[in-house]
Amino acid sequence: MTVTSTASLSIGEMREFAEFDPAEQRYIKRSLDIGMSRTDAFKLWGTTASENAAIRQQYVAYQDLKALRGLIPQEGTIGEVERLIGKLVRMSAFDLQQGQLKSFSAFRFLYERLLGPMARPYLPAAFCAAAALPTIKPQSRKILLQSLSEAAATAPAWSDAIPSFYPEFIEEAEAA
């Protein structure tokens, strides 16, 4: 991949991230810190007792991430898909129940970074299954399911490009 195409990909990813609302952006950054073990999420994100409890729950929910990365189908056989989809739906449901990811785009943005580009073809199915669960509030369920475009749901192929932009926490003083 040339430097120009890599830069274009990064800029496109930055633009996409900028379109998410602040709560989605914050949740994605925190989730990447937890899922990729980038930092101590309690120190960085734990501003209240309830947030510390949510971070603890997320650490538990994400404990299968490494195993999930290894379960991404290579051949696409039904047995491979079966091994992946249950764990992926469970983790997806956890994230959607938090109420911070409000669209398939935000979900996909997070999960293609947590799992890698080879997981992309399975994300619409996991998202739909998780969003349709009765543990998701009915109004949220409707909004989430409507956010999945027909193009994403019926894509004939998915890019295997590795994400190049991984958003991180920036101190207010540093940002200014």
Description of the structure:
- It is a single chain.
- Helix 2 (22-35) runs parallel beside helix 7 (104-115) and helix 6 crosses helix 8.
- The chain has helices spanning 3-19, 22-35, 41-45, 49-61, 65-71, 78-97, 104-115, 123-131, 138-146, 150-153, 172-175.
- It contains eleven helices and no strands.
- The mean pLDDT is 92.
- By secondary structure, the chain is mainly alpha-helical.
- The chain is globular.
Q: Beta fraction of the residues?
A: under 5%
How would you sum up the major sheet?
none
Radius of gyration: 16 Å
Order of helices and strands: HHHHHHHHHHH
Instruction: Please tell me what the overall shape is.
Output: globular
Binned, the helix content reads 55-70%
Estimated structural class: mainly alpha
Q: How many separate helices?
A: 11
User: Using DSSP, what is the number of strands?
Assistant: 0
How far do the termini sit from each other?
33 Å
Please mark out the parts with pLDDT under 50 across 5 or more consecutive residues, or reply none: none
pLDDT averaged residue by residue: 92
Short précis:
The protein is mainly α.
List descriptors.
mainly alpha; 176 residues; 65% helix; 11 helices
Topology:
Elements: H1 3-19, H2 22-35, H3 41-45, H4 49-61, H5 65-71, H6 78-97, H7 104-115, H8 123-131, H9 138-146, H10 150-153, H11 172-175
Helix pairs in contact: 2-7, 6-8
